[in-house]
Amino acid sequence: MTGIEAFVRGLPKTDLHMHIEGSIEPQLMLDLAARNGLKLRWDTAEALRGAYRFQNLQSFLDLYFEGCKVLVTERDFHDVTRAYLRRAHEDGVIRAELFIGPQSFTERGTPIEALMSGVLGAMEEARREHGMSLGLMISVHRHRTEPDAMAVLDQVMPWKDHIIGIGMGGAEVGNPPSKFARFFQAARDRGFRTTVHAGEEGPAAYVREALDLLQVDRIDHGNACLADHDLVRELAAQRVPLTVCPLSNLRLKVVSSMREHPLKALMAHGLHVTVNSDDPPYFDGYVTENLLACRDALGLSTEEIVGLVRNGVEAAFVTEEERQALLLRLDAYLAAHADVLDPASAS
Ligand SMILES: Nc1ncnc2[nH]cnc12
Ligand SMILES: [Zn+2]
């Protein structure tokens, strides 16, 4: 490991855009399938990992929803969440905000109680054992109907105090934010913070709808906003965070190479850009690999990497007290590694 790799891995980071059901490492997927008496199309972790070649978002979602079938019991939800949090902790993540999309599981008969207990129990363990700051977000599927999304909102209300936000993912093109205007209004009326996937494969107009119609607090991805200068100006002026996922964009062919990734262009426009993992095993990288891939392809400086990480802390759905505590951890690390940021200070 080079000095900069070790520095980025140790840097206290956030992961504000990741999906629990997209975090199942191949071996765990096989183990969970065996535990539940399910037969997968792959016999080995290598074979499964070899299937992670995608043409677009839909080809990924097909595999992602197939993978969801191995999560059945409370223990399954616990184990997958715990495994992600262990990896994220080793990756230097101090604040993670986790999406789970209940519809994939409740439609197959898993009770919402099993899902919530498993996930929340694992989060509590990771808070205790790793000192992580954690929040859970409920995500609905945009390819389903708005009444379906409303039903999810009703289902999770008993856990309202354990949920920091409501989001939406799934097949973007043809399912614009406007389809869910009443759902997001309802989520806001019930006191939730909101975020939505927009401008990943969809156009800038979808990001505009997310901002104006859904009035979300953050935008997941948001890359396509660059096509609309007025929109970029508004997003920058309002400091709306974008949870960008560079390796996801590469693997889903949203960009044809990392060198063409818009991360630096988004930063140059003064946007509140954060870097996140999305679905780490599927896209072959946790937050550190995402930052290093951007550094290698786009020539990010160490200061720019630190700026992106600081943006993550500023965009987190936390109380101001918690934000200050996270910033203190970041600043303590930077003070202890002043030689990396300013090599002239090393003597
Ligand atoms: N990148 C992505 N886009 C839309 N929905 C998703 N669900 C999990 N990952 C996603
Ligand atoms: Zn996502």
From TrEMBL:
Q: Which PANTHER family match?
A: ADENINE DEAMINASE
Organism equals Roseomonas indoligenes
Relate the protein's function as given in its record: Catalyzes the hydrolytic deamination of adenine to hypoxanthine. Plays an important role in the purine salvage pathway and in nitrogen catabolism.
Which residues are listed under the site Important for catalytic activity? H221
InterPro entries in alphabetical order:
A_deaminase_dom, ADE, Ado/ade_deaminase, Metal_Hydrolase
- Protein name (record): Adenine deaminase
Alphabetical list of Gene3D superfamilies matching this protein:
Metal-dependent hydrolases
Which residues carry out catalysis? E200
Query: Known catalysed reaction(s)?
Result: adenine + H2O + H(+) = hypoxanthine + NH4(+)
Domain Adenosine deaminase: start-end pairs: 12-332
Query: What residues bind Zn(2+), as annotated?
Result: H17, H19, H197, D278
